[in-house]
Every structure is written in structure tokens, then in C-alpha cells.
Amino acid sequence: MTRMGVMGLGTMGSGITQAAIESGFEVVAVEVDDAHLSSGASRIRTGLERRVKSGKLSQHQVGGLLSGLNLSTSVSSFADCDIVVEAVFEDASVKAAALSGISGAVGPQTIVASNTSSISITSLSRNLKHPENFIGMHFFNPVPVMKLLEVVRGYLTSDATASAALDIGRRMGKEAVEVRDYPGFISNRVLMPMINEAIFALMEDVAGRDDIDKVMKLGMNHPMGPLELADFIGLDVCLDIMNVLYSGFKDPKYRPCPLLVNMVNSGKTGRKAGAGFYQY
Ligand code: 3HC
Q1: For ligand 1, is residue 37 a contact (CB within 6 Å)?
Q2: 3-state DSSP call for residue 151?
Q3: Is 146 in the pocket of ligand 1 (CB under 6 A)?
Q4: Buried b / exposed e across 111-131, counting CB within 10 Å, b at 16+?
Q5: Does CATH number 1.10.1040.10 belong to domain 189-270?
Q6: CA–centroid distance, residue 223 to ligand 1 (Å)
Q7: Which CATH architecture has domain 3-180?
Q8: Which of these is catalytic: 114, 120, 138, 196?
């Protein structure tokens, strides 16, 4: 049985954990303290309850899946893992510290993956003892539902690591796509400029919030409009990713919209803050 470690039980880490235990993996999830562990565990239980409500799982099965989940506050619990996925806060120095902790805890064969949405895998690999075993595994929110896994090869990632990560993704029921390590990879290089442009259109009063979202929902069949999606992702995350694109390509077409910057500075970062383009 595959033993997966997950570092960080925020939205993405708990989604990855849920998807992994649903796929029959044994998971060791690590958080900084008991309070973060228990809120992560309750997020996972809520996700599994949704499966019960929609008739995809029984209560009995949920109990079985949860027995494959081990919670810990120590990275040493990753010692026997085949793969560890880092899903801590999207900040280069926070990720660097988490990755060097993981690297010190695992064996030389363990694959270490980062769920970063835009930070360079090659630069993060400097924190690993075995950079050839390191790769990006970029999941999408909500992880148990979204089919895509973007597998990002760093400059030093070995072929064996890439094929193992693709295989693990497929065993989690994902369509895994392999991309190279350039700013924003494919997903956020394409998605974020669209969201940023929608915010410019709102700032310039080309149309109102609801109409901008309606155009993309009804005209392009997107499940959410770009402003609603920005709230769902988190406006701070959107701004961070725009800044990665802007500094990575040195191209003004990626400049973050000033309205996005203002909203983040005001604390209106979207759904998680209770307010963004919409109220929650
Ligand atoms: N766990 C388990 N199941 C979940 C879930 C969760 N966390 N969230 C939703 N679901 C399930 C529901 O139970 C429901 O299942 P069912 O069809 O079996 O009943 C199904 O998903 C649909 O959910 P809802 O009926 O509640 O709501 P919607 O039909 O409105 O779908 C949505 C919600 C799936 C979020 C849809 O609006 C959507 O696809 N939105 C776009 C999401 C998106 O673009 N995500 C990517 C963001 S970018 C990213 O993550 C990368 C980063 O780098 C920025």
C-alpha cells in the first residue's frame, strides 16, 4: 500500500489527504500544532460527509477510510513514507523551511512533492538533499472533485521521479499532465491573467460584477465567473501568482490590477475572509 505524507492541512492539504485516503492510500498528515491538526481533520470529515450525502460513500466506508489517516505534529512521522506532498502556505520562505524539514526526515528514495501553485520547483529544490527526487504536484481546489493534476518537472527532477508522480496522480483518479518549470506553469499562466483582466474590466466599469461573471459562465461555460473564482481561490493567492508571473517574465502584460492590490490590502481576500467581490 502506498504511504503518503501530507504537510499542511489547509484547504489544499486536507483536500489532497481526502483524495488520497479515498484512493486507498495510507496518509500521514502533519501540522504545526494540535489546533491546526483538528481543524484540518474536521475539513476532511466534512468533505467525506459530502460524499455520503451524494450517495457516493456509506458512513461505514468513511470510518474505514479515516482509519487509514494518521495525524501528527512531527515531521519524523514521515520516515516511512513513499511520497510526501508539501502543502503549506504559499510563500517561498515558508515552503523552503517545510521542505528542508521533510528532507531531513525521509529516506533517500522518498519522493518529495510540492503543491506550489507558482513558485519555481527548481529554486525550491535547493532545500532538498535529493533534488532529483523532488517534483511539483499541483492539485486544484476542491481536490476531491477536480480531475486535473499538473506535474511540474524541475531542472533536476529525474525521469524516475516524474513517472512515479504521474503514476501516483493517476492512482488518485487524476488526469496528470506533465509541464516544465516556467512561471505559473500552464494552469496559472493562463488562468490568472484572465482573472486579472476581469478585475481591470470591473475597475474600468466596462460592466458590473455580476455581468462580468455572467459573460464567462454563460458565454464560455465556465462553472464560476472569474470574479467569483478569484474569491474562491483567495485574492491574496491571485495577487501572489500575478507577482510571480510579472517578476518571472518581466513583461508588463502580467502587472497586477491596482483594484486587486487594494482589495488585498484592505483584507477583503475573498470567501475565506467573508468578503471579496462578493459577501459570504
Ligand atoms: N469534497 C468533496 N466533494 C465536494 C467538495 C469537497 N470539498 N466540494 C464540492 N464537492 C462535490 C459536491 O458534493 C457535489 O458532488 P455530487 O455531484 O456528487 O453531488 C459536486 O462536488 C458539485 O458540488 P456542488 O453541487 O456543491 O456545487 P457546484 O455544482 O456549484 O460545484 C464546484 C462546485 C465544483 C466548486 C464548481 O463550482 C467548480 O468547478 N468551480 C470551479 C473550480 C475551479 O476552477 N477550481 C480551480 C481553482 S484554481 C486552483 O485551485 C489552483 C491554484 O493554483 C490557484
Answers
A1: no
A2: strand
A3: yes
A4: bbbbbbbbbbbbebbebbebb
A5: yes
A6: 9
A7: 3-Layer(aba) Sandwich (3.40)
A8: 138
Active-site residue flag, 141: no
Q: Which amino acid is at 52?
A: V
Task: Indicate whether residue 229 lines ligand 1 (CB < 6 A).
Answer: yes
Q: Residue 117 catalytic? A: yes
- Reported as type and span, the H/E element at residue 64 is helix 59-66
Beta-strand relationship, 69-72 and 175-180: unpaired
Domain boundaries, the chain: 3-180, 189-270
Atom 23 (ligand 1) nearest CA: 145
pTM assigned to the model? 0.96
Ligand 1 atom 42: the closest Cα is on which residue?
141
Cell numbers for 53, please give them. 450525502
Sequence letter at residue 82:
D
Of the candidates 117, 118, 133, 187, the residue annotated as catalytic is 117
127 is catalytic: no
Testing ligand 1's pocket by substitution, the residue of 90, 145, 151, 220 carrying the most ligand atoms inside 8 A of its CB is 145
Taking a C-beta distance cutoff of 8 angstroms, is the pair 216, 225 a contact? Answer: yes
Strands 3-7 and 83-86: parallel
Render each residue's pLDDT in the chain as its tens digit; 280 residues. 899 999 999 999 999 999 999 999 999 999 999 999 999 999 999 999 999 999 999 999 999 999 999 999 999 999 999 999 999 999 999 999 999 999 999 999 999 999 999 999 999 999 999 999 999 999 999 999 999 999 999 999 999 999 999 999 999 999 999 999 999 999 999 999 999 999 999 999 999 999 999 999 999 999 999 999 999 999 999 999 999 999 999 999 999 999 999 999 999 999 999 999 999 9
Q: Respond yes or no: is residue 120 known to be catalytic.
A: no
Cell, residue 135: 517534483
